[in-house]
Amino acid sequence: MGRGQKMCDACGAVTGPRSFLCPSCQNPFVFKPKFLRREKGVEIDWKALKRGDKIRVKQNTGPYSLDADGQKINMGYKGEFNVSFVDDNGIHAHGNDDEGPQSHCYIWMGAEKKNKFTSLVRKAHEIEKLGD
Description:
This protein is mainly beta. It has strands at about 5, 15, 55, 65, 70-75, 80-85, 90-95, 105-110, 115, 120, 125-130. It folds into two domains: about 1-30, no CATH class; about 45-130, no CATH class. The chain is elongated and about 60 Å long. The two termini are about 40 Å apart.
């Protein structure tokens, strides 16, 4: 069986990976229960974060700039961070690395704002809290 295919347990027919029913015998495919799947888009209250909380900033989110062709150039942070404290517009944090001192970073979470002179758009980062 090739990559990106699955086989029906009832009749053995091969079909695409996103099929819900077997095209031959109409037998439903069994998927992971919803509670075992990772929830996407779960929003956290970033203002409730406190010192020591660990967060992950999702890639390609946050502030961006526009080049001469109108293409987006991401200017935001990505990766894992330790929260130092929060203020009205964002999160003060440092890298989540145990090997030594890390630089301070400011993760913008405020309202979207565009600077008409520099074409920089301040847009909130998308974050998720790690652990509990």
